[in-house]
Design brief:
The complex is a heterodimer of chains A (281) and B (183). Chain A is 57% helix and 4% strand. With 281 residues, chain A is mostly helical. Chain A has a two-stranded antiparallel ribbon. Chain A is elongated. Chain B has eight helices and no strands. Chain B is globular, with a radius of gyration of 18 Å. The termini of chain B are far apart. The relative contact order of chain B is 0.10. Classes of the chains: A mainly alpha (281), B mainly alpha (183). Chains A and B meet through helix 1, helix 3 and helix 4 of A and helix 2, helix 3, helix 5, helix 6 and helix 8 of B.
Amino acid sequence: MSHLTLETIARLVDESPTAVEAAHLDACAVCRAEVDAMREDVQALSMLPDMTPAPDAWAALEDRLAAEGLVRRRGFAIPLPRFAWAAAAAALFLAGGLTGRLTSGPVQQIVQTPTGPGPAAGPAADTAERVPAVAPQLAGDLPVDSDGIQAGADAAPDRGRADAPVYAEPQARPAPGVTLAGNTFGGAQQPRTLEEAALFLRQTEELYLNALTRYAELATQAEAGDPVSRLAALQSIVMTTQAALSQAPADPVINGYHLTALAQRDATLRQVAAASGDRWY
Amino acid sequence: MTETECIRRAQTGDSAAARELYQRYAPRVHAVVRRLAGDDALAEDWAQEAWVRAFRALPGFRGDARFSTWLHRIAVNSALHGRRWRERRAGREVDMTVDEPASRSDHVVLRISLQRALDRLPDGMRQIVVLHDVEGYTHEEIGGLLGIAPGTSKSQLFKARARLRSMLQSGRAEPQKEEACRT
Protein backbone atom coordinates (compact mmCIF):
# COMPACT_ATOMS: atom_id res chain seq x y z
CA MET A 1 0.00 0.00 0.00
CA SER A 2 1.37 3.40 -0.94
CA HIS A 3 0.98 6.17 1.56
CA LEU A 4 -0.42 9.63 1.07
CA THR A 5 2.12 12.22 -0.01
CA LEU A 6 3.31 14.80 2.49
CA GLU A 7 1.67 17.52 0.39
CA THR A 8 -1.62 15.68 0.61
CA ILE A 9 -1.19 15.30 4.32
CA ALA A 10 -0.39 19.01 4.55
CA ARG A 11 -3.62 19.77 2.71
CA LEU A 12 -5.63 17.56 5.03
CA VAL A 13 -4.74 19.85 7.91
CA ASP A 14 -6.99 22.49 6.32
CA GLU A 15 -9.33 20.55 4.10
CA SER A 16 -11.49 17.46 4.27
CA PRO A 17 -10.17 14.31 2.62
CA THR A 18 -11.64 12.93 -0.54
CA ALA A 19 -13.40 9.61 -0.31
CA VAL A 20 -10.29 7.78 -1.47
CA GLU A 21 -8.10 9.59 1.00
CA ALA A 22 -10.58 8.98 3.83
CA ALA A 23 -10.62 5.28 3.05
CA HIS A 24 -6.84 5.21 3.07
CA LEU A 25 -6.67 7.01 6.41
CA ASP A 26 -9.13 4.57 7.90
CA ALA A 27 -6.87 1.74 6.94
CA CYS A 28 -3.41 3.30 7.44
CA ALA A 29 -2.19 4.15 10.93
CA VAL A 30 1.07 5.59 9.53
CA CYS A 31 -0.72 8.23 7.51
CA ARG A 32 -3.09 9.03 10.35
CA ALA A 33 -0.07 9.61 12.55
CA GLU A 34 1.44 11.80 9.85
CA VAL A 35 -1.70 13.92 9.69
CA ASP A 36 -1.67 14.30 13.45
CA ALA A 37 1.99 15.25 13.43
CA MET A 38 1.38 17.78 10.67
CA ARG A 39 -1.51 19.29 12.62
CA GLU A 40 0.78 19.57 15.61
CA ASP A 41 3.37 21.37 13.49
CA VAL A 42 0.81 23.83 12.17
CA GLN A 43 -0.59 24.45 15.62
CA ALA A 44 2.93 25.03 16.93
CA LEU A 45 3.54 27.48 14.10
CA SER A 46 0.47 29.45 15.09
CA MET A 47 1.73 29.64 18.66
CA LEU A 48 5.29 30.69 17.98
CA PRO A 49 6.17 33.37 20.51
CA ASP A 50 7.07 36.97 19.85
CA MET A 51 10.74 37.80 19.63
CA THR A 52 12.66 40.42 21.50
CA PRO A 53 14.63 42.75 19.27
CA ALA A 54 18.21 43.67 20.02
CA PRO A 55 18.56 45.92 23.10
CA ASP A 56 20.03 48.80 21.13
CA ALA A 57 17.45 48.62 18.36
CA TRP A 58 15.46 51.56 19.72
CA ALA A 59 18.55 53.78 19.92
CA ALA A 60 19.36 53.11 16.30
CA LEU A 61 15.76 53.62 15.29
CA GLU A 62 15.45 56.83 17.27
CA ASP A 63 18.56 58.21 15.59
CA ARG A 64 16.98 57.57 12.23
CA LEU A 65 13.59 58.93 13.24
CA ALA A 66 15.21 62.06 14.62
CA ALA A 67 17.29 62.49 11.46
CA GLU A 68 14.10 62.39 9.43
CA GLY A 69 12.38 64.79 11.80
CA LEU A 70 9.80 62.20 12.78
CA VAL A 71 10.48 62.53 16.51
CA ARG A 72 11.83 65.27 18.74
CA ARG A 73 14.26 64.27 21.41
CA ARG A 74 13.92 65.58 24.90
CA GLY A 75 16.88 67.46 26.31
CA PHE A 76 19.15 66.40 23.48
CA ALA A 77 19.51 63.02 25.10
CA ILE A 78 21.05 61.64 21.97
CA PRO A 79 22.56 58.19 22.42
CA LEU A 80 25.84 58.81 20.66
CA PRO A 81 28.16 55.84 20.31
CA ARG A 82 30.83 55.33 22.93
CA PHE A 83 32.20 58.63 24.15
CA ALA A 84 31.37 60.78 21.17
CA TRP A 85 29.55 62.89 23.73
CA ALA A 86 32.89 63.88 25.16
CA ALA A 87 34.21 65.07 21.82
CA ALA A 88 31.05 66.98 21.00
CA ALA A 89 30.83 68.54 24.43
CA ALA A 90 34.47 69.47 24.44
CA ALA A 91 34.31 70.97 21.00
CA LEU A 92 31.30 73.08 21.70
CA PHE A 93 32.53 74.07 25.14
CA LEU A 94 35.76 75.27 23.65
CA ALA A 95 33.82 77.21 21.07
CA GLY A 96 31.92 78.90 23.83
CA GLY A 97 35.01 79.67 25.87
CA LEU A 98 37.15 80.96 23.06
CA THR A 99 34.50 82.92 21.33
CA GLY A 100 33.38 84.38 24.59
CA ARG A 101 36.83 85.79 25.08
CA LEU A 102 37.08 87.29 21.67
CA THR A 103 33.92 89.28 22.18
CA SER A 104 35.47 91.00 25.17
CA GLY A 105 37.48 94.00 24.09
CA PRO A 106 41.12 93.09 23.63
CA VAL A 107 40.58 90.68 20.84
CA GLN A 108 38.47 93.15 18.98
CA GLN A 109 41.18 95.75 19.31
CA ILE A 110 43.81 93.37 18.08
CA VAL A 111 41.82 92.52 15.04
CA GLN A 112 40.77 96.01 14.20
CA THR A 113 44.08 97.79 14.70
CA PRO A 114 46.21 97.96 11.57
CA THR A 115 49.69 96.71 12.28
CA GLY A 116 51.54 98.56 9.58
CA PRO A 117 51.83 99.10 5.86
CA GLY A 118 51.80 96.41 3.27
CA PRO A 119 49.68 93.36 2.77
CA ALA A 120 48.93 92.89 6.44
CA ALA A 121 48.04 96.48 7.18
CA GLY A 122 44.27 96.39 7.02
CA PRO A 123 41.53 94.43 8.70
CA ALA A 124 41.23 92.43 5.55
CA ALA A 125 44.87 91.62 5.43
CA ASP A 126 46.38 88.42 4.27
CA THR A 127 43.82 85.79 5.06
CA ALA A 128 46.33 83.01 4.85
CA GLU A 129 48.50 84.48 7.56
CA ARG A 130 46.55 86.98 9.51
CA VAL A 131 43.86 84.75 10.88
CA PRO A 132 46.25 82.19 12.34
CA ALA A 133 48.27 85.06 13.74
CA VAL A 134 45.23 86.29 15.60
CA ALA A 135 44.30 82.89 16.86
CA PRO A 136 46.88 82.55 19.66
CA GLN A 137 45.68 85.75 21.17
CA LEU A 138 42.12 84.57 20.94
CA ALA A 139 43.04 81.45 22.80
CA GLY A 140 45.40 82.92 25.33
CA ASP A 141 48.65 83.15 23.34
CA LEU A 142 48.87 79.44 22.82
CA PRO A 143 50.57 77.98 19.76
CA VAL A 144 48.55 76.96 16.79
CA ASP A 145 49.69 74.35 14.33
CA SER A 146 49.48 74.54 10.59
CA ASP A 147 45.90 73.34 10.60
CA GLY A 148 44.84 75.98 13.00
CA ILE A 149 44.53 73.51 15.86
CA GLN A 150 45.55 74.93 19.17
CA ALA A 151 48.20 72.67 20.64
CA GLY A 152 47.98 71.76 24.28
CA ALA A 153 45.60 74.57 25.06
CA ASP A 154 43.37 74.61 28.04
CA ALA A 155 40.04 76.16 27.28
CA ALA A 156 39.77 79.74 28.37
CA PRO A 157 36.76 80.09 30.61
CA ASP A 158 34.60 82.98 29.69
CA ARG A 159 35.96 85.67 31.94
CA GLY A 160 35.00 88.61 29.78
CA ARG A 161 31.22 88.48 30.04
CA ALA A 162 29.19 88.76 33.15
CA ASP A 163 26.25 87.05 31.54
CA ALA A 164 28.23 84.19 30.11
CA PRO A 165 27.58 80.65 31.30
CA VAL A 166 29.75 79.62 34.19
CA TYR A 167 32.05 76.70 33.54
CA ALA A 168 34.25 74.91 36.01
CA GLU A 169 38.01 75.14 35.69
CA PRO A 170 39.62 72.55 33.48
CA GLN A 171 40.78 69.41 35.23
CA ALA A 172 42.00 67.21 32.46
CA ARG A 173 43.18 67.38 28.91
CA PRO A 174 41.58 64.77 26.69
CA ALA A 175 43.31 65.79 23.51
CA PRO A 176 45.29 68.68 22.09
CA GLY A 177 43.11 71.66 21.67
CA VAL A 178 40.11 70.11 23.39
CA THR A 179 39.40 70.50 27.07
CA LEU A 180 36.63 69.05 29.15
CA ALA A 181 36.21 71.52 31.93
CA GLY A 182 34.63 70.41 35.16
CA ASN A 183 34.43 66.84 34.01
CA THR A 184 35.60 64.12 36.30
CA PHE A 185 36.46 61.73 33.52
CA GLY A 186 37.67 64.03 30.78
CA GLY A 187 40.96 63.41 29.07
CA ALA A 188 43.16 60.41 29.66
CA GLN A 189 41.04 59.16 32.50
CA GLN A 190 38.34 56.83 31.31
CA PRO A 191 35.37 55.55 33.27
CA ARG A 192 36.09 52.12 34.62
CA THR A 193 32.67 51.14 35.87
CA LEU A 194 29.15 51.46 34.64
CA GLU A 195 28.40 54.01 37.33
CA GLU A 196 31.41 56.10 36.35
CA ALA A 197 30.40 55.91 32.71
CA ALA A 198 26.89 57.05 33.59
CA LEU A 199 28.27 59.95 35.61
CA PHE A 200 30.56 60.85 32.74
CA LEU A 201 27.63 60.79 30.36
CA ARG A 202 25.57 63.09 32.58
CA GLN A 203 28.45 65.50 32.95
CA THR A 204 29.21 65.66 29.28
CA GLU A 205 25.54 66.01 28.48
CA GLU A 206 25.32 68.99 30.79
CA LEU A 207 28.39 70.50 29.21
CA TYR A 208 26.97 69.88 25.81
CA LEU A 209 23.74 71.66 26.64
CA ASN A 210 25.58 74.61 28.15
CA ALA A 211 27.88 74.79 25.19
CA LEU A 212 25.02 74.52 22.76
CA THR A 213 23.23 77.37 24.47
CA ARG A 214 26.37 79.43 24.33
CA TYR A 215 26.87 78.52 20.71
CA ALA A 216 23.41 79.77 19.90
CA GLU A 217 24.12 83.03 21.71
CA LEU A 218 27.36 83.51 19.85
CA ALA A 219 25.85 82.63 16.55
CA THR A 220 23.26 85.31 17.11
CA GLN A 221 25.94 87.79 18.04
CA ALA A 222 27.98 86.80 15.04
CA GLU A 223 25.05 87.53 12.79
CA ALA A 224 24.61 91.01 14.22
CA GLY A 225 28.22 92.00 14.96
CA ASP A 226 30.66 93.92 12.86
CA PRO A 227 32.38 91.83 10.19
CA VAL A 228 35.77 91.78 11.85
CA SER A 229 34.42 90.52 15.17
CA ARG A 230 32.37 88.01 13.27
CA LEU A 231 35.45 86.88 11.40
CA ALA A 232 37.33 86.32 14.64
CA ALA A 233 34.43 84.45 16.17
CA LEU A 234 34.07 82.24 13.12
CA GLN A 235 37.78 81.53 13.05
CA SER A 236 37.71 80.34 16.62
CA ILE A 237 34.77 78.07 15.78
CA VAL A 238 36.67 76.67 12.82
CA MET A 239 39.63 75.92 15.09
CA THR A 240 37.39 74.26 17.59
CA THR A 241 35.60 72.08 15.11
CA GLN A 242 38.91 71.12 13.53
CA ALA A 243 40.14 69.98 16.90
CA ALA A 244 36.94 68.07 17.49
CA LEU A 245 37.20 66.42 14.07
CA SER A 246 40.66 65.17 14.93
CA GLN A 247 38.92 63.16 17.65
CA ALA A 248 35.84 62.18 15.68
CA PRO A 249 36.57 62.60 11.98
CA ALA A 250 33.37 60.97 10.81
CA ASP A 251 30.96 62.66 13.18
CA PRO A 252 28.25 64.21 10.98
CA VAL A 253 27.23 66.83 13.53
CA ILE A 254 30.75 68.16 14.01
CA ASN A 255 31.38 68.02 10.28
CA GLY A 256 28.24 70.02 9.75
CA TYR A 257 29.35 72.68 12.20
CA HIS A 258 32.81 72.74 10.67
CA LEU A 259 31.69 73.17 7.09
CA THR A 260 29.16 75.80 8.04
CA ALA A 261 31.73 77.74 10.03
CA LEU A 262 34.27 77.49 7.20
CA ALA A 263 31.78 78.75 4.66
CA GLN A 264 30.69 81.60 6.87
CA ARG A 265 34.26 82.54 7.70
CA ASP A 266 35.25 82.68 4.02
CA ALA A 267 32.16 84.69 3.18
CA THR A 268 32.97 87.11 5.96
CA LEU A 269 36.55 87.40 4.77
CA ARG A 270 35.30 88.37 1.35
CA GLN A 271 32.91 90.84 2.93
CA VAL A 272 35.68 92.46 4.96
CA ALA A 273 37.99 92.61 1.96
CA ALA A 274 35.33 94.23 -0.17
CA ALA A 275 34.47 96.78 2.52
CA SER A 276 38.06 97.84 3.11
CA GLY A 277 38.86 98.36 -0.54
CA ASP A 278 42.38 97.32 0.31
CA ARG A 279 42.95 94.09 -1.49
CA TRP A 280 45.81 92.08 -0.20
CA TYR A 281 46.19 90.05 -3.33
CA MET B 1 -0.46 56.50 29.09
CA THR B 2 -3.25 54.93 27.06
CA GLU B 3 -2.54 53.67 23.59
CA THR B 4 -4.69 56.39 22.06
CA GLU B 5 -2.86 59.08 23.97
CA CYS B 6 0.42 57.47 23.10
CA ILE B 7 -0.45 57.49 19.41
CA ARG B 8 -1.68 61.08 19.54
CA ARG B 9 1.53 62.26 21.14
CA ALA B 10 3.71 60.20 18.84
CA GLN B 11 1.90 61.79 15.91
CA THR B 12 3.24 65.14 17.07
CA GLY B 13 6.79 63.79 17.20
CA ASP B 14 6.98 63.11 20.93
CA SER B 15 9.94 60.78 21.28
CA ALA B 16 8.85 59.34 24.63
CA ALA B 17 5.47 58.39 23.20
CA ALA B 18 7.12 56.94 20.13
CA ARG B 19 9.36 54.89 22.35
CA GLU B 20 6.43 53.60 24.34
CA LEU B 21 4.67 52.50 21.18
CA TYR B 22 7.85 50.83 20.10
CA GLN B 23 8.25 49.00 23.39
CA ARG B 24 4.69 47.76 23.26
CA TYR B 25 4.85 46.38 19.77
CA ALA B 26 8.52 45.76 19.01
CA PRO B 27 8.40 42.04 19.94
CA ARG B 28 5.43 41.48 17.65
CA VAL B 29 6.93 43.42 14.78
CA HIS B 30 10.31 41.81 15.25
CA ALA B 31 8.80 38.34 15.31
CA VAL B 32 6.91 38.65 12.05
CA VAL B 33 9.76 40.38 10.29
CA ARG B 34 12.32 37.94 11.66
CA ARG B 35 10.33 34.94 10.48
CA LEU B 36 9.78 36.40 7.06
CA ALA B 37 13.44 37.33 6.81
CA GLY B 38 14.79 33.99 7.99
CA ASP B 39 17.90 35.77 9.19
CA ASP B 40 18.76 37.92 12.22
CA ALA B 41 20.74 40.61 10.45
CA LEU B 42 18.16 41.08 7.74
CA ALA B 43 15.44 41.12 10.37
CA GLU B 44 17.08 43.99 12.23
CA ASP B 45 17.24 46.07 9.07
CA TRP B 46 13.73 45.22 7.99
CA ALA B 47 12.24 45.78 11.40
CA GLN B 48 13.83 49.20 11.58
CA GLU B 49 12.52 49.94 8.11
CA ALA B 50 9.07 48.81 9.20
CA TRP B 51 9.12 51.18 12.15
CA VAL B 52 10.37 54.08 10.10
CA ARG B 53 7.57 53.48 7.62
CA ALA B 54 5.10 53.27 10.46
CA PHE B 55 6.22 56.55 12.00
CA ARG B 56 6.21 58.21 8.60
CA ALA B 57 2.63 57.09 8.13
CA LEU B 58 1.56 57.66 11.71
CA PRO B 59 0.25 61.22 11.21
CA GLY B 60 -2.27 59.71 8.80
CA PHE B 61 -3.43 57.04 11.22
CA ARG B 62 -7.00 57.84 12.20
CA GLY B 63 -7.86 54.79 14.24
CA ASP B 64 -10.15 53.19 11.66
CA ALA B 65 -8.32 49.93 12.28
CA ARG B 66 -6.65 48.72 15.43
CA PHE B 67 -3.17 50.11 15.73
CA SER B 68 -1.72 46.63 16.13
CA THR B 69 -3.37 45.50 12.90
CA TRP B 70 -2.24 48.60 11.07
CA LEU B 71 1.31 48.20 12.31
CA HIS B 72 1.38 44.50 11.58
CA ARG B 73 0.42 45.11 7.99
CA ILE B 74 3.17 47.68 7.63
CA ALA B 75 5.67 45.25 9.10
CA VAL B 76 4.64 42.50 6.70
CA ASN B 77 4.76 44.85 3.72
CA SER B 78 8.17 46.11 4.75
CA ALA B 79 9.53 42.62 5.04
CA LEU B 80 8.08 41.58 1.70
CA HIS B 81 9.47 44.72 0.14
CA GLY B 82 12.83 44.00 1.73
CA ARG B 83 12.81 40.51 0.34
CA ARG B 84 11.98 41.69 -3.16
CA TRP B 85 14.73 44.29 -2.90
CA ARG B 86 17.20 41.68 -1.73
CA GLU B 87 16.25 39.35 -4.53
CA ARG B 88 16.79 42.07 -7.07
CA ARG B 89 20.18 42.83 -5.56
CA ALA B 90 21.46 39.36 -4.97
CA GLY B 91 19.24 37.04 -6.94
CA ARG B 92 19.98 34.21 -4.58
CA GLU B 93 18.00 31.57 -2.80
CA VAL B 94 18.32 30.81 0.86
CA ASP B 95 20.58 27.90 1.71
CA MET B 96 18.58 24.81 2.55
CA THR B 97 21.16 23.23 4.80
CA VAL B 98 19.89 22.05 8.12
CA ASP B 99 22.82 21.60 10.44
CA GLU B 100 21.19 20.29 13.59
CA PRO B 101 18.70 17.52 13.97
CA ALA B 102 15.31 18.43 15.29
CA SER B 103 13.64 16.73 18.17
CA ARG B 104 9.95 16.45 18.97
CA SER B 105 10.46 15.60 22.60
CA ASP B 106 8.48 18.62 23.76
CA HIS B 107 6.86 21.80 22.53
CA VAL B 108 9.80 24.03 23.28
CA VAL B 109 12.09 21.89 21.23
CA LEU B 110 9.45 21.74 18.52
CA ARG B 111 9.24 25.52 18.42
CA ILE B 112 12.97 25.87 18.17
CA SER B 113 13.12 23.21 15.51
CA LEU B 114 10.31 24.82 13.59
CA GLN B 115 12.00 28.20 13.72
CA ARG B 116 15.21 26.71 12.43
CA ALA B 117 13.42 24.84 9.72
CA LEU B 118 11.48 27.96 8.77
CA ASP B 119 14.73 29.85 8.38
CA ARG B 120 15.89 27.25 5.91
CA LEU B 121 12.87 27.20 3.70
CA PRO B 122 13.19 28.95 0.36
CA ASP B 123 12.04 32.57 0.69
CA GLY B 124 8.83 32.11 -1.25
CA MET B 125 7.72 29.11 0.76
CA ARG B 126 8.74 30.62 4.05
CA GLN B 127 6.75 33.78 3.60
CA ILE B 128 3.61 31.86 2.72
CA VAL B 129 3.97 29.57 5.75
CA VAL B 130 4.67 32.53 8.01
CA LEU B 131 1.80 34.57 6.65
CA HIS B 132 -0.70 31.71 6.70
CA ASP B 133 0.24 29.41 9.55
CA VAL B 134 1.98 31.85 11.87
CA GLU B 135 0.21 35.13 11.19
CA GLY B 136 -3.18 33.82 10.17
CA TYR B 137 -3.56 35.47 6.76
CA THR B 138 -5.97 33.88 4.31
CA HIS B 139 -4.84 32.69 0.90
CA GLU B 140 -6.78 35.55 -0.64
CA GLU B 141 -4.92 38.06 1.51
CA ILE B 142 -1.61 36.41 0.76
CA GLY B 143 -2.41 36.43 -2.93
CA GLY B 144 -3.08 40.14 -2.69
CA LEU B 145 0.12 40.81 -0.81
CA LEU B 146 2.36 38.73 -3.03
CA GLY B 147 0.61 39.25 -6.33
CA ILE B 148 -0.16 35.58 -6.82
CA ALA B 149 -3.36 33.57 -7.19
CA PRO B 150 -4.88 32.20 -3.98
CA GLY B 151 -4.56 28.71 -5.41
CA THR B 152 -0.84 29.23 -5.86
CA SER B 153 -0.56 30.36 -2.28
CA LYS B 154 -2.40 27.24 -1.20
CA SER B 155 -0.28 24.80 -3.20
CA GLN B 156 2.92 26.50 -2.06
CA LEU B 157 1.76 26.26 1.52
CA PHE B 158 1.24 22.52 1.25
CA LYS B 159 4.67 22.08 -0.35
CA ALA B 160 6.22 24.19 2.37
CA ARG B 161 4.53 22.25 5.16
CA ALA B 162 5.69 19.02 3.57
CA ARG B 163 9.22 20.29 3.42
CA LEU B 164 9.09 21.48 7.00
CA ARG B 165 7.81 18.09 8.07
CA SER B 166 10.64 16.38 6.24
CA MET B 167 13.19 18.63 7.86
CA LEU B 168 11.77 17.96 11.29
CA GLN B 169 11.72 14.24 10.65
CA SER B 170 15.16 13.92 9.22
CA GLY B 171 17.09 16.90 10.48
CA ARG B 172 18.94 16.75 7.21
CA ALA B 173 19.47 19.13 4.37
CA GLU B 174 17.00 17.76 1.92
CA PRO B 175 13.48 16.54 2.53
CA GLN B 176 13.49 12.78 2.76
CA LYS B 177 11.44 10.31 0.84
CA GLU B 178 8.93 12.91 -0.12
CA GLU B 179 8.66 11.45 -3.54
CA ALA B 180 9.25 7.87 -2.56
CA CYS B 181 6.49 7.54 0.02
CA ARG B 182 3.34 7.71 -1.55
CA THR B 183 0.43 7.64 -3.62
